[in-house]
Amino acid sequence: MEYERTLTTVVAAMVRPKVEKYLDSLHAALGESFTIRILRSDGGLTSVDLAKEFSSNLLYSGPAGGVAGVAGIIAQKTRYKNLLTFDMGGTSTDVCLIQNGIPSLRRETTVGDLTVRAPSVDVRTVGAGGGSIAHVPEVTKALRVGPESAGATPGPAAYGKGGVKATVTDANVVLGYLPPALLGGAFKMDITASKRAVQVIADAIGLTLNEAAEGILRVANEKMYGALKSVSVERGHDPREYSLVAFGGAGPLHACALARLCQSYPVIIPPSPGVLCAFGDAVTSLRHEVGRTHICKLTDVSATDILDICKSLSTQASAVLEMQGVDSSRQRHTFEADMRYSGQALSLPVAFLLEALERDGLEILQRSFTTLHHTLFTYSLDLPIEIINLRSRVEEISDDVILVDLVKSENEVNPSSNALAERTQIYWNGDVYYDVPVWERNELRSGDRIVGPAIITEMDSNTLVMPDHRAEVDRFGNILLWPSESAAVRSEAEDNQKIITELVEASLANARLEMDALILRSALSPAMREQLDYFPMISAGSGPNEGKMVIGQFGSYIQHFLNIWKGSIEEGDVFITNDPYDVQGGISHLNDMLVMLPVYYNGKRVAWTANQGHFTDVGGQTPGSLPIHGRTIFEDGIQIPLSKLYDKGQLNEALVNVICRNSRTPDFSRADLHALVAACRIAGQRVSEMCARFGTEAFEQALADLLDRNKMAFAQLLKTNIPARRMTFHDWMDDDGTGLGPWKVSCTMFKEPLEDGSGERLVYDFDGTDPQAESSVNWLVSPTTWKMRSSAYLIKALDPSITLNDGAYDLMDVRIPLGTLLNPIRPAALSCRTHLLGRTLDLILGLIGQRQPRFMTAAGFSDSPHFFYSGWRIDGIYFQLYQISFGGVPGRPVGDGLDGHSMFPSMKTVPNEILELYFPLRIEHYSTIPDSGGAGLHRGGNGIRIDYCFLRPGEISLHDDRWLTKPWGVNGGEPGARSSKTLVRAADGVRVPLPSKADYIAVREGDILEWRTWGGGGYGVPHKRPAEVVAREVREGLVSRNGALRYGVVLTDALEVDAVATSTVRAEMEARKTVEGREAGAFEIDRGGTLAELFGRCEAETGLPPPRLPSGRTLRGPPAALPHIMALHAKRQQEDREEFGANYERYAGVGVDEEVRGRRSYR
Question: Do residues 592 and 562 touch, judged by C-beta distance below 8 A?
């Protein structure tokens, strides 16, 4: 999409000059007699000229070289064609899958956090290498490995260059797996330093030196195991059907352990594994591909059309290789089509032969795609299939690589004594092994057999043959490792008693990632497939912890379900609901479809997996089913009470049909429901595998330990980071879409002793929050959801690697008065709860930051603004768009807020090209808004501007906030800019300011909606921000020239800092700050004015009249019968009278008909 292509252009502009300079120098040094070939990211070679022109194709050539070496040597020369490659170096590990001798490719190259549109070998990287640092966070006492690396300098402690932190290499040294001298004896290991570094870890977690070293390796191995599963299991491949090829400097040391986890045998250690990447360059061949975007449904195109395009592409690609000296007779042609269900997120590459396409027509493409989709996702859909891209790849048919056979061994058991370098001792699985042979690999012969334990050493790497493995050398010098026939059968619980909790934690994290990957690939709606609006989780399945979330988001719904479900729960069942009242707010509106699956192992329920995803439409009053004017939940859409979607494995087709029939987008609903269930099932399979691997009892104990760990960490935080005094904070939701607002959300946080005297609990009391609204902005807050949010913020700040779970919830109490905005009474409408859901994030920041500088931050983009556009295409087909907007992250103690970001970090924007492809609109403008982030020492992130030009008549709905109040700045930082919505009518050019929340806004062809989101508040005094940073941001368009004056920065005509003028202005700003008496470090917020002041300036600044105060309404319905609500309402009236004085009655709308007050028609 456009973002990836833009990155590709930028990366090419950055990389190309360096590539050109290097290649020109290399060519000049070698002379004309040498022909230079450059390795590409996809494992093929290219010429110097093409390498310069397409420099972005070289970014991943390093990892690609190793994969090319495996494909060219192992796959070509042995009988092992299905391979998992495992390349472990100093800082990271790269893995890839090779099927039938061909490496998997992907259409994008990801470097760090950047994704470039360039083909590459599908290598997955994980931050676990020899230099990965082990550490134990003080608050959780959990063993962590990586992603921080010691690098080459100072490197592991064993290098003797000043490194003091324990690394994976140091753990290998302590256990005896690495010889005292490396590189043929030229490099001596500092064993004492390694022991000293690992002992620090041992002392921190209460283990012996050797136990700690083994723990470090096993945690690292678990991370690498997750990466291997990501390229195999997630793709529908069984790793047991593949052999593991280990290389890189550290790969052979960990090969047996990884093979044991994957059951991928034999393990193959090629000769010189430390330099296999370089060897791969020599055995691969020239390659070029040409592609064309050709978006069409299979029903709208003919096989002849596709054939003509493919032949044209093939001719172009062939000509490029001919220019590089490869005759057409030495070229191999392959073809691929990127295909997907129409509207689906991820396309699948489908390989095909031109001959088959000519013979069978488009049926061959349809059949291949359907089969591949079912293999990957376990289901297929009755939806139109479309082609996205067509490709022709041409590769040189290279000369066969000739490998020299090793001399045949004359020994039947051990190698010749000439190969024995020394004997050593190692520690493995709790036992010490003495007299372990260390063999010189260059002295081994074909047919040599080695029984573990043993170490095989060579110049560039070392291979560990574990005690339960054996090794054999093949004719080409590859070492083949197998599990010993006599190896004792032991559960991993027995092997890993000391660190089983860490291993289960890592396995759960891998399972969660697998759930994410499956939904991403198989969901159909933009909400789930593009913006990732889904939230998977896994919970304990039995005993006192049943239903407690052990990994996931938003806390558990399972306990709420168990409290009210009266029917049976059996293996094969899948439960479903979208009713928030059924699960006490575990989901928050009817669009959130929740599925829950009990996981059984050997007849016992051991876990629950669950998933909630946002459905685009559930039959509500308005397209998208988020009616702002809805007064009851009946107007929000269809309510699915707790039901069985599957009963002992049997699908309730009638229920699925009911859900789809009550949706304006039934195809989305059906596909997304399949995706949610499939993700739960894959997680259930992984849980069963954990039970088989560790034992059920050990697995359940690990879950209990994980929950206890978070509880103990939170208890410690209560003691050390939460002050004893009561802290109160409030914020506002600007309006409810019917003209009433702002709505107050208030919370008081304090500690109180537990009843048993064992400690304290943290209490959140929402007394003072406004009574519930009569529109759909209420949010039924689940106490577990609030506990998850607040505990996550605290614990993650001190241990970012911790797995969030429900363990700490016993140490928190959430008190929300019934009948208020956050605890409405059925049948209150809930569909537009997103504004309160987000605003309470600012509430957490305001509460916790008051006395803790490390948690102090400004207000940010605390919302998920929704935009809807619906109508009829010119061909009579209904369309409906649902999109979430992004804004500015607040300035923080650690730095600036991010520009144009989501409230939920996992969410992504819908690419503009997707919008324009599937909906009748054009994106006229998309950018961040200069100066919209609050000025500060750390600037608030900017909001975004997106202009939609509508190409068909239709209706739009708007759901946004912060158009009246501002995202507050903190500690001298200024507030961020407000949001705004303006409709520019094509007929007359009139600009119509729109409210932040409205339904049924009619648009015509050519009308333009200018949508601007708000920025984040600033942190710290603006004139303390480095002047050069401000100048640079002016040049980058993030801050305007006038906006630089907010920081006290004066610029020259060349947009450089005018040092003299800047110094003068900043001195004046500092003097004003001193006069105002601001204290450094004191908690101070800037809301941009009092409510009365904001009301007084509202129409002049926004073009809209101020809302009517909710305290002026007459309460009706269930809340009016509650004495505490009536008392609260009276209190709010008094507060508003004091705030607004003589203007109260005007702003409260006293005397205005309540049925029409604030309502406005846009039909």
Answer: no
